[in-house]
Amino acid sequence: MASTIQVLPQSVTPTMDSVYSDQLGFFSLDSNVPGLSKVILDKLNMKDYGEYRAALEGKKNGTGFSSLKEMFQKMEDTFKFCTACKKLPAHLSPPKSLKRCIKCLNVYYCSKDCQKSDWPIHKTFCKNLRLIAMDRLVEWLVSTGDLPFQTEEWTLCASEVRSWDDWLSMQGDLSPRLDAILLGKNMSDLWTNAGRQRPESRDLRESLWRVCSEFFSKPLTLGLGIKIFKLDPYSHPLTIHLVGAANSETLGARTTDMDELSHMFPGHQGLEVVMVGPEVVEGPILRPPLRAFGPRGRVYISGYKGLYHQFWEEVVEKEAAAKPDLVVGFHPGFHATQSLGEGWLPTLLLLRDFNIPAMFTLFNESEFELSLQIMLELEMHIRTSGPNPFRSLKPEQVQSCPNKPAVYCNAHYICFQGLLEREEEEEEQENTEEELASVG
């Protein structure tokens, strides 16, 4: 292996506007502001993610609430803080309830003065925050199995599908599939228990599509990486390692979640997606990675709980699992950690020094630039980067600062492989050999 960089310059530090995953698997927020983190489990009176998943699946035994209404209320409580002064209800003296913006139903204020002072900023984001609040509830239908809707076989080859418009052109009329969900029992139960008025059918159809776009963005992004690195799934089976797999990929994951890849590459020789990360949770995907070829024309999903460099040393190097043709990381978040040493640095160096084709996705332009800066400091060879044509269309609230431009899953990507200096040396050597040959 090439010489490694032991200490990475502290070029970036986390901010309240950054989007990253904490060690527990949910999006982390400022320590005094609730959000999708350990705070959620405390608010829901749950001990671990097993109880949280059981709740999403409608199983009451062992959970900290007795009804869907209580679940939705407690989940909403985790987003309650004053948008202007950042105070929690418990921090107000005397304690009192927060009032919600009646337009977006997403932000709260502890007083009329706070709401008035925040309005000049909030009015710019209010409309989009309404969509975020709606999608946050509609996303529950993924856990019930209503979403995503069933997709059609591709009528275009993978090289011809360059955007969502191309993909949608092969799906036909979505109305029957979306209307079936709108008229379903789970949709009715959702708005009966959510504590807010049911939106118009048109708005709900658009929300259903946005939530589905986030689901399908993942396999389509993996397919984009296959195309960028010119891997051929028809000549031999491919193994993809999903490094840093978080709770969002594995909580409630199904073994069919990546089947869109088979639509993308019909008749392929076999694809395996191995989800690796310390946040991988129990479920259908937590099964042994393949050491030999998988089933032809099928996508096999497996999982490993642990850091990637540990997985490499304990499983891959011992030939208990196939080496990857491609490594992908959805929102690794290493730009927001004060030190890479114990987490991402060993993995980044492993990918670089073993010359493994890799692709990371980022939430927004800021995260993209900071991550790119770190990778350049590590002397990685950046093959290509830019906006992802298959980014999620579902807007996400930026942590504890709702009055910020929304971010989108898989919005940008960075493809890299090997050590930059090594590539330059090889190019120089090739040029020298060509010159010597011409002289001879």
Automatic annotation (TrEMBL):
Pfam families recorded for this chain?
Answer: MSS51_C, zf-MYND
For whether the record's keyword set contains Zinc-finger, the answer is yes
Residue span(s) of domain MYND-type: 82-126
Q: Does the keyword Zinc-finger apply?
A: yes
Q: Which UniProt keywords are listed?
A: Metal-binding, Zinc, Zinc-finger
Which molecular function term from Gene Ontology is one that the record holds? zinc ion binding
Instruction: Give the source's domain of life in one word.
Output: Eukaryota
**PROSITE patterns assigned to the protein according to its UniProt record, in alphabetical order:** ZF_MYND_1 (PS01360), ZF_MYND_2 (PS50865)
Q: Which InterPro entries match?
A: Mito_gene_expr_regulator (IPR052839), Mss51-like_C (IPR046824), Znf_MYND (IPR002893)
| The protein's name | MYND-type domain-containing protein
What organism does the record attribute this protein to? Denticeps clupeoides
